[in-house]
Task: inverse folding
């Protein structure tokens, strides 16, 4: 039996640059579940040749599981079970690929997964997928695979069978499933990462491994999709177990993809204690208000291995931060810049322009970056995502409903103070400014062009 786990991606305006190329960590967790299941079954068969699998499978039982990610290599998708995993921008692409696969292999069982499926499962009801995994609990995915492969009769919590749903005359708008209450003790399979490690990067950092310590977010920023996941619950594991997992990885850099890596003094102390004798180079997310409140910790966390901090500054306007429940005013962002520089910590500032902005606001943002000598920064456009309260609030004002445009680089709402084209031009001008102002941005472009030429000559 062959199981394919495929990362579905949709091209964006930055696809040709690909400033960030990382492993499909979610699929590596799912592969680990399958590997563990197969190992357990084969162990039972070896110990007891008469082991009853409650299925047609005999002692030659074998499962081949493969990860496919078009970002690294194109491969023909053929299998008995095919799981498609993608973000909200890949929703249409996932359904298109499901239709093509079903036409090509009618007997194949197709599964949809990913954070968009977890929150917006109803948008996939009309697809050719057979199952939707709407829970982020790995045990729920394991039950589904056991149900399909071993014909095991188990209650499929956190899983929707679309065939059964389509036979119903009425559908509930809500689908209940258990939230993850503890961080599950399973390490992702890193065999795929080892294959593509040399191609991975986060901006100028190369050979970057992803690691995860928590699910959800303890904060409530309204524009963020993260608080919709795991039914709003925040769960984490110890920094010690994170360090132990990283010790078994051979990477130059480690990107902790938690929405917030450290958010109080107790966590800061625990992180420093766990990593103070290590030599890892880590990229993490921290909030500006944490950085300011615990400024005394910044030098210590740098010595413990944090080399790059990603900070969601969002806006230089306090009104924006207040409207979307960020939890602090813009002067905190400014103070955080000073703290990070004094601690010798490199950082990337994330800025978001709003539909209430006018030309003067775009100009003020560039002036702010110059004034505070911010070297690394990115820009996005405020975008209400499906499944959030903000989407409901702004739905009547949406101009563009194409899911692939909800990448925070497209304007999907009508600007309040500018013509649509003028807003787009000012947003594009920010990236021209970035190229001129940021040395690292120029280095990245030059490196991508150089690598592209090398690749062409090799061919």
Result:
């Amino acid at each position: 039996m062959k199981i394919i786990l495929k990362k579905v991606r949709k091209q964006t305006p930055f696809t040709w640059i690909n400033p960030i190329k990382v492993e499909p960590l979610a699929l590596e967790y799912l592969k680990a579940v399958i590997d563990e299941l197969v190992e357990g079954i084969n162990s039972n068969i070896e110990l007891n040749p008469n082991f009853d699998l409650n299925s047609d499978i005999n002692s030659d039982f074998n499962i081949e599981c493969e990860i496919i990610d078009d970002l690294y290599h194109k491969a023909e998708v053929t299998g008995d079970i095919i799981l498609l995993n993608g973000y909200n921008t890949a929703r249409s692409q996932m359904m298109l690929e499901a239709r093509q696969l079903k036409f090509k292999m009618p007997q194949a069982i197709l599964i949809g997964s990913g954070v968009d499926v977890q929150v917006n499962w109803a948008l996939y009801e009309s697809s050719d997928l057979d199952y939707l995994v709407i829970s982020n609990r790995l045990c729920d995915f394991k039950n589904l695979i056991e149900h399909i492969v071993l014909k095991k009769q188990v209650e499929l919590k956190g899983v929707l069978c679309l065939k059964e749903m389509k036979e119903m005359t009425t559908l509930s708008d809500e689908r209940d499933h258990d939230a993850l209450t503890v961080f599950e003790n399973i390490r992702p399979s890193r065999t795929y990462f080892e294959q593509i490690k040399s191609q991975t990067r986060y901006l100028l950092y190369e050979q970057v491994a992803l690691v995860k310590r928590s699910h959800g977010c303890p904060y409530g920023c309204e524009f963020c999709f993260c608080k919709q996941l795991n039914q709003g619950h925040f769960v984490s594991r110890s920094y010690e177990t994170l360090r132990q997992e990283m010790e078994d990885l051979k990477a130059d850099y480690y990107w902790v993809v938690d929405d917030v890596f450290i958010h109080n003094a107790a966590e800061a102390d625990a992180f420093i204690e766990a990593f103070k004798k290590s030599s890892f180079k880590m990229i993490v997310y921290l909030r500006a208000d944490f950085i300011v409140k615990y400024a005394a910790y910044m030098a210590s966390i740098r010595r413990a291995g944090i080399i790059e901090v990603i900070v969601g500054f969002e806006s230089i306007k306090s009104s924006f931060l207040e409207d979307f429940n960020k939890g602090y005013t813009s002067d905190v962002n400014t103070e955080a810049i000073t703290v990070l520089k004094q601690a010798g910590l490199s950082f990337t500032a994330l800025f978001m322009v709003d539909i209430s902005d006018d030309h003067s606001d775009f100009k003020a943002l560039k002036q702010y970056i110059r004034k505070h000598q911010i070297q690394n920064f990115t820009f996005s456009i405020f975008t209400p995502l499906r499944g959030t309260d903000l989407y409901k609030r702004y739905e009547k004002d949406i101009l563009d409903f194409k899911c692939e445009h909800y990448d925070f680089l497209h304007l999907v709402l009508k600007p309040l103070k500018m013509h649509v084209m003028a807003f787009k031009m000012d947003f594009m001008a920010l990236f021209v400014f970035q190229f001129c102002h940021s040395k690292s941005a120029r280095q990245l472009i030059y490196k991508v062009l150089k690598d592209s030429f090398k690749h062409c000559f090799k061919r």
